[in-house]
Each structure stands twice: as C-alpha cells, then as structure tokens.
C-alpha cells in the first residue's frame, strides 16, 4: 500500500475512532433493547400471576371459613345406659292464645376475632376508630414492637402536605392483602394517597413532601416512625390488642408492660417532628433561631 494511503487510514482512525465499532455497537443496542422489552414483559407476567395468587388465597380462606361454619360438631361418645326420655310439659294457654315456640339455638357459634370499638378512642393527635382483626398465621402482620391487625383504622392530625402551617387529618389504614398487609395514608380531601408494603414506606413518602416544602431533603428525618404515625405503638392501642387471645400466637412480638416510665417515653416520642404538628414547628423555630 502506498505510504500516502496508510497515512490517510491513520488520520481517519484518529478523527473517527469508533467507525469500525459502529456495527458491533448497533448489534449490542439491539440486543439490549430486546432484553429490556423481554424483561418488562416478564415483570408484567409476574405481577399478573401474583395478583391471581393473592385472589386465589383469599378465595381459599373464604371457602375454608365457610366450610368450617357448616362442619358438624365432633361426635359425642354414646352412653349404653338407657335413659327414659322425659315428656315435655305443655304450656298453659293464656286467654286461648298458644305461646310461640322458641327458636332453637345454633349448634355451633362462629367465632369472630374482630376487636370492635364502641366509640372512637383518642390519644393525643391520634383517634382510633377500628382495631381490626389480628392475623397471626403469617409473620408479616406483626413485628417485635407492633401488631398490624387487618382492618385497623385511625386518623392523625399533622402538617398539610401542601402547606405546613395548616393542620391536616390523615386517615391511616391496614388493609388485608393475602399473606402480607398493605398500608395506606390518605388526607381528608382524598388529594393525597399513598399505599405501601410497610408503615415506614408510606410515612417516608409523606415526610419527603414536607421536606420539599421546606427546601431541604433531610431537614425532618422520618426516623422509621411509620408505626408511630399510624398509632400502632401507642400504649392504649398495644394494650388493647394484647387483650385479644390471638395476640399470644404472634411469635416474636414482645408484649408491652404498661408502666409510668413507658408513658413518659411515649409522650416524648409523640413530640417527634415527623409525627407531631407542634413538634414540627418547634423544630423549625429552633432552626430559624440558629440561622
């Protein structure tokens, strides 16, 4: 090859060094694109299968409970001694009117472990409307310091997610969703709603909106206060849930012993800026005074 041609090739490689890799790059891009679409399709299929599995589990539990309701009582051992059957007395009629026979009692009474609330219970900024139903056959419905009963419903007064100087009532719910619960926080006007797999996930999302209003990402730390924001760690709530016999089957849950120092610690924790409207503004006032 002529020296001039070699010099031109060398100059071309310097100017456009990726020219010989264009074909390989295009092939790699196509492979990556195909893998992304395939991965998305697999994720969608897994999500659909998970939804079907949750629905099947719920249907199985419903049918099992219904079957237990129709199940006959256990066999009673037969006594060989013959007993003469007493003839029931006929009730006397009053003014010629025969009294109506009483309705026979049900053979088997269905057990209902839902903890009902006669009237709302208020503790500080939290109001409990429903304690829900304790689910003990799966470990996702409780932790070492809190129980997450399905159907639990409470409200908490805290700073508005659009205006921190305005109070807002947030509705906190524990929703039964198969083997693991779903947690939900929603404002009173239904403009804000977040659902997550844990109380901390929902609470952290709300605190991130508060921090955006303040112009900082971590001015108010969430500090894993999700259970507290829902009111699940309040001593009255824990003591009420511990009264239910189902709480004894929550393996790993440590029962709360109500003492005076426990109440003081809880009152101090309730003033945390991540869960208290007053605590939030006290923290902001101290921050402004320093700067």
From TrEMBL:
<dbReference type="InterPro" id="IPR040092">
    <property type="entry name" value="TBRG1"/>
</dbReference>
<dbReference type="GO" id="GO:0005634">
    <property type="term" value="C:nucleus"/>
</dbReference>
<feature type="region of interest" description="Disordered">
    <location>
        <begin position="74"/>
        <end position="108"/>
    </location>
</feature>
<dbReference type="GO" id="GO:0051726">
    <property type="term" value="P:regulation of cell cycle"/>
</dbReference>
<protein>
    <recommendedName>
        <fullName>Transforming growth factor beta regulator 1</fullName>
    </recommendedName>
</protein>
<dbReference type="Pfam" id="PF05965">
    <property type="entry name" value="FYRC"/>
</dbReference>
<dbReference type="InterPro" id="IPR003889">
    <property type="entry name" value="FYrich_C"/>
</dbReference>
<dbReference type="Pfam" id="PF05964">
    <property type="entry name" value="FYRN"/>
</dbReference>
<keyword id="KW-0539">Nucleus</keyword>
<dbReference type="InterPro" id="IPR003888">
    <property type="entry name" value="FYrich_N"/>
</dbReference>
């Amino acid at each position: 090859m002529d020296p001039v041609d070699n010099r031109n090739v060398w100059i071309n490689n310097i100017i456009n060094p990726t020219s010989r890799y264009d074909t390989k790059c295009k092939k790699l891009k196509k492979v990556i694109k195909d893998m992304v679409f395939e991965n998305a399709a697999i994720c969608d299929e897994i999500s659909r299968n998970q939804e079907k599995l949750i629905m099947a589990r719920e249907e199985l539990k419903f049918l099992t409970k219904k079957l237990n309701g129709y199940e006959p009582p256990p066999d009673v051992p037969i006594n060989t001694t013959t007993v003469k059957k007493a003839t029931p007395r006929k009730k006397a009629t009053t003014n010629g009117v025969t009294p109506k026979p009483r309705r026979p009692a049900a053979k088997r009474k269905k057990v209902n472990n839902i903890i009902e609330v006669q009237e709302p219970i208020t503790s500080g900024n939290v109001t409990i409307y429903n304690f829900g139903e304790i689910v003990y056959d799966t470990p996702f419905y409780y932790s070492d310091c809190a129980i997450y009963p399905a159907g639990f419903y409470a409200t908490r007064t805290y700073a508005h997610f659009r205006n921190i100087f305005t109070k807002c009532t947030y509705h906190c719910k524990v929703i039964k969703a198969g083997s693991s619960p779903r947690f939900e926080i929603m404002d009173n006007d239904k403009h804000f709603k977040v659902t997550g797999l844990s109380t901390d996930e929902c609470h952290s999302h709300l605190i991130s909106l508060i921090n955006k209003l303040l112009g900082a990402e971590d001015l108010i730390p969430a500090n894993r206060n999700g259970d507290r924001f829902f009111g699940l760690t309040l001593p009255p709530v824990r003591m009420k849930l511990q009264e239910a016999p189902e709480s004894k089957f929550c393996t790993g849950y440590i029962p709360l012993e109500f003492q005076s120092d426990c109440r003081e610690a809880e009152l101090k924790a309730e003033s945390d800026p991540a869960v208290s409207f007053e605590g939030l503004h006290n923290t902001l006032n101290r921050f402004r005074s320093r700067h």
